Amino acid sequence: MTLLDGKKVSNEIKDEITIEVANMKERGEKVPHLAAVLVGNDGASLTYVGSKVRSCKKIGFESTLIHLPSETTEEDLLAKVQELNADADIDGYIVQLPLPKHIDEEKVLMAVDPDKDVDGFHPANFGKMALDMETFISATPFGIMELLKRYKVDTQGKHAVVIGRSHIVGRPISILLSQKGEAANCTVTLAHSRTKDIKELTLQADIIVSALGVPHFLKEDMVKDGAVIIDVGITRVADDSKEKGYYITGDVDFEPVSKKASFITPVPGGVGPMTIAMLLKNTLLARERHRSVK
C-alpha cells in the first residue's frame, strides 16, 4: 500500500510556485495577488482562510483578507464582489462558503468575474472544464488529479466510482476522470444518496473517490483488493478522550481499508492540503493570463 501524501505533494507544489514568484520579482513583474472574502465567524472557514493567507505569505504572493460581519447584507456583499472584479491589482479571489442564510450563495458566485474565479465555481468555468477547455478547475478535484499524476497511479481504462454528486467535488471529478489524458481515461460511475446497492458498485471499482462527509462510510467489505482509495470526506467527530474534544476523520474506515488498497489518501493530510495548493496554482495561472493580455 502506498500512502498518497497530500501534505508532501502540496509542499512540493508550493516550492515550485515560490521559485516562479521569485523569478517574477527578479524581472520586476507584479506578483500574484489573492483575495479572500469571509462573511461571519464560522470556525472552519476562519481556519481555512487563515491557512490560505499564511500560504500566500510563505510563497511570496500578495494576499488580502476581507472579513465582513455576519449581518452584512446581500447587496453589500455583491457590491464588494463588483469592487474586486474591477480591482486590477487582484488576480483572483474567493468568497468563502458557507455564507449566512440570508445571502443567496448562487447569486454571489454568479457575480464573480470568471477570469478571477480561482475557486472554479462559476458556471462559465465549470462548463469549460466539462468541455476540456483551459479554465480554472475547482481546487479539490484539481488536487486529486494532481495527486494521481504525481504518484503515477494507472487510471487508463479503469473503473472509477465517485460517491457524491456535489458541484464542488463529485460532479467535476467524475468528468475529469473520464476525459482523455494523464490520470484520466476512466470509465466512471457516479453514485449518490439514492444509488441502490452501492456496495455492489464499489466492489467493482478500481478507483473509489468518496466525497460524502459520512464518517467511516466506506468499509473493508466494500473494497476489492488493489483498489485506489481517494477520501475527500472530512468530519469532526466528538470524542471526550481527545484533548480538543473531537477527532478528524474521513469517509473511509482507514485502517482495515488500507490493508486492501494499492494507494490511499489519509485524513487529515491527503486531499485537504492539495486543495489549498491548487488554489494557489489557480492564482498563479490567473496572474499569467492577466499578464498575457496586458
Structure description:
- This protein is of the alpha/beta class and 294 residues long.
- The protein has two domains: 26-114, 3-Layer(aba) Sandwich (Rossmann fold); 139-272, Rossmann fold (3-Layer(aba) Sandwich).
- Helices cover 40% and strands 16% of the residues.
- The protein contains ten helices and eleven strands.
- The protein has helices at residues 6-26, 43-59, 74-86, 105-111, 123-130, 139-150, 170-178, 198-202, 254-258, 271-292; strands at 2-3, 33-39, 62-68, 92-95, 159-163, 187-191, 207-210, 228-231, 235-238, 246-249, 263-264.
- Strands 1-11-8-7-5-6 form a six-stranded parallel β-sheet.
- β9 (235-238) and β10 (246-249) form a beta hairpin.
- The mean pLDDT is 95.
